[in-house]
Design brief:
Shape: globular
Order of helices and strands: HHHHHHHHHHHH
Helix content: over 70%
Oligomer: single chain
Number of helices: 12
Largest sheet: none
Protein name: ABC-2 type transport system permease protein
Distance between the termini: 52 Å
Keywords: Membrane, Transmembrane, Transmembrane helix
Length: 295
C-alpha cells in the first residue's frame, strides 16, 4: 500500500479577531478618501495640478479683494458675490473631480468589491456625493474665510465690526453650500453614466455651459414673464436666481446698485426648482448604482 504524498503546510494564516467597524466606518472612510481624491491628495503630482491651480486662482482673487478693501476701504465684492463670480471655475473643477470619484471605479470594475457588505449600494453613491459637495464648499468657502479675516483685522469698529462681518460671511457660506450641492449633484450623476473620464468631463461641461445660451434667448423674448423665468433653463443661473431672491442686497457691495437677477416675484419658484433638481439628481444617482450593482 503506497503512502500518501500530499503534505499540509502551516504558513501562518490566522482568522481576523479585531473589531468589526461596520457600515458607518466604511462610509466615513469612503467619504474621506473621496474628499482627498477631489484635491488630488494621495495621488500623483500630475493629479494635483488642476485642483490646486483652481484653489490658487480663487485664493489670489480673494486675497486681491481683501487687499483692496484693506488699503482703500472699497468692497470689491461681497462674500456671496464671490461665489457667483467664481462659478465658472467651479464648473471645470467638477468636470475633473467627479469623473475621478466615480468614472474610474466604473472603468476598473471594482464596484463589486465596494458593494460587498457592509457597504450598501446607496451608501457608495451618497459617500461620493457628500465628498464632492464638501470639496466644492471648501473650494468656495476657504477664500471667503480669507476675505473675512482680512476684513475683520482692518475694520475700525472693533468687535462690533467683526460681528457685522461675521453676519455677512454666514449667508455667503450658505450660498456657497447651495452652489456645491447643485453642482455636485448634477456633476456626479453625469459622471456616473460612463467609465470614460474624458466623456464624463465633456458631458458635465456641456450640461452647464450649453444651457446658458438658452437663458440668453429666453431673456430677450417679448414676454416679461418668460424673461423672469428664463433663468430656470441653466443650473448656474438657477442658483444665481435663488441667491438673488434669498440674499438680495448681500449680493451687492454697499453703495452699488444692480447685480441681482430680474426674477420678479418668482423667487420661491426658483428655490423649489433648485430643491427638485437636487432631489431628482440624487434619486437618479441612487437608481443608477442600483442598476450597476445588479450586473
Amino acid at each position: 500500500m503506497s503512502e500518501p504524498t500530499g503534505v499540509i503546510h502551516d504558513i501562518g494564516y490566522q482568522r481576523y479577531t479585531g473589531p468589526r467597524l461596520g457600515r458607518g466606518h466604511v462610509f466615513g472612510a469612503l467619504y474621506l478618501h473621496g474628499v482627498r481624491t477631489a484635491f488630488g491628495l494621495g495621488r500623483s503630482a500630475k493629479a494635483k495640478i488642476f485642483p490646486w491651480l483652481v484653489v490658487g486662482v480663487l485664493t489670489v482673487v480673494a486675497a486681491g479683494a481683501t487687499a483692496v478693501r484693506a488699503q482703500f476701504g472699497q468692497v470689491v465684492m461681497t462674500y456671496a458675490q464671490f461665489a457667483d463670480a467664481m462659478a465658472w471655475l467651479v464648473i471645470f473643477f467638477v468636470a475633473v473631480a467627479a469623473p475621478e470619484l466615480v468614472s474610474r471605479d466604473l472603468r476598473s470594475g471594482v464596484l463589486p468589491l465596494y458593494f460587498s457588505r457592509p457597504l450598501p449600494r446607496g451608501d457608495y453613491a451618497l459617500a461620493k456625493l457628500a465628498a464632492l459637495v464638501t470639496a466644492l464648499w471648501l473650494l468656495l468657502g476657504g477664500p471667503q474665510l480669507l476675505m473675512f479675516l482680512g476684513a475683520a483685522f482692518s475694520t475700525g469698529d472693533g468687535m462690533r465690526g467683526v460681528w457685522n462681518e461675521l453676519l455677512d460671511l454666514l449667508p455667503g457660506l450658505l450660498y456657497a453650500g447651495l452652489w456645491a450641492v447643485v453642482f455636485a449633484s448634477i456633476g456626479l450623476l453625469v459622471a456616473s453614466l460612463t467609465g470614460k473620464r474624458a466623456f464624463a468631463a465633456g458631458g458635465i461641461v456641456a450640461v452647464f455651459l450649453m444651457t446658458t445660451p438658452i437663458v440668453g434667448t429666453l431673456s430677450i423674448m417679448p414676454s416679461a414673464t418668460v424673461n423672469q423665468l428664463a433663468f430656470l433653463a441653466s443650473p448656474s443661473t438657477l442658483v444665481g436666481a435663488v441667491g438673488s431672491w434669498a440674499l438680495g442686497d448681500l449680493l451687492v457691495p454697499e453703495g452699488q446698485r444692480g447685480g441681482t437677477m430680474p426674477i420678479g416675484g418668482f423667487g420661491p419658484l426658483y428655490a423649489v426648482a433648485a430643491a427638485v433638481l437636487v432631489a431628482g439628481c440624487v434619486t437618479l444617482l441612487l437608481l443608477r448604482y442600483r442598476k450597476v450593482a445588479a450586473r
